[in-house]
Amino acid sequence: MRFVIVTGMSGAGKSISLKMLEDIGFFCVDNLPPVLINKFAQICFSPDSGIDKVALGIDTRGGNLFTELLNEIKKLENEGYELEVLFLDANDQTLVKRFKETRRKHPLVSEGRIQNGIDKERKILEQAKKRANFIIDTSKLLTRELKSELAKIFLEGKKYENLIITVLSFGFKYGIPSDADLVFDVRFIPNPFYIPELKEKSGNEKEIKDYVLKWDVSNKFIDKLDDMINFLIPNYIQEGKNQLVIAIGCTGGKHRSVTLANELYNRLLKQDYSTNIYHRDIEKDSKLKN
């Protein structure tokens, strides 16, 4: 039996996650009052229940009832039940944007600023987040990427370290990404932009990759970067960080940064980290010309 409690910030993707878990065979119940968890667990864990995977959506819509969540979890564990807690999170800016786009009110503030509800909810959820077995920050995740992260945990059984890594290529002429944790400048590498037959191609194409990686300086850089990132990641995990954005920039964000971001991404994939890649500015030069 796999018994999962899904909770987290309003707007962070709990409903979507429950739907995705349902699609991979979980029996899902949303917004069950925490005081009923124990009774529900007894039914699910009974030999004749016919249920082997359960996901419960529990959130702050239950008001004061939510404060009983941790107590109910402890009761279940004391009675020998095994359960897991999945916590969905997102940064404040993303949550505010999502509420505005859907024109929904925050469940903890009937009137006034959405931010006030977010602040209040973070305090309420603080202990639940600490108890979580898995924390997914959905701030930068597309729906398909969230589905992939859930599949890694609940379908493929891969080790999950509560850290999602985004490797991001960008062009300095369009500005440094505001959400970057680590920024690396690769403008010291020879630029294929000045070679006519390569100018219109991108770092996703073999010709650019071959050109950028034919230089010793490029390979030394990616080796040293790979070594440093792999030193940092376990320390970030230990510190409790759950989102790491590694930004690699060149002048326009089309050639060198894309190639080296792809190289780092492929190396991280081999080590089973939860890793995504995003080329922010790869098409901008073309769009400006049009």
UniProtKB/TrEMBL annotation:
One of its GO terms (molecular function) is ATP binding. Pfam families: PapZ_C, RapZ-like_N. The keyword Kinase does not apply. InterPro entries: P-loop_NTPase (IPR027417), RapZ-like (IPR005337), RapZ-like_N (IPR053930), RapZ_C (IPR053931). It comes from the Bacteria. Residues 1-155 form the RapZ-like N-terminal domain. HAMAP family: RapZ_like (MF_00636). PANTHER family: RNASE ADAPTER PROTEIN RAPZ. This is RNase adapter RapZ. It comes from Vallitalea guaymasensis. The lineage of its organism: Bacteria, Bacillati, Bacillota, Clostridia, Lachnospirales.
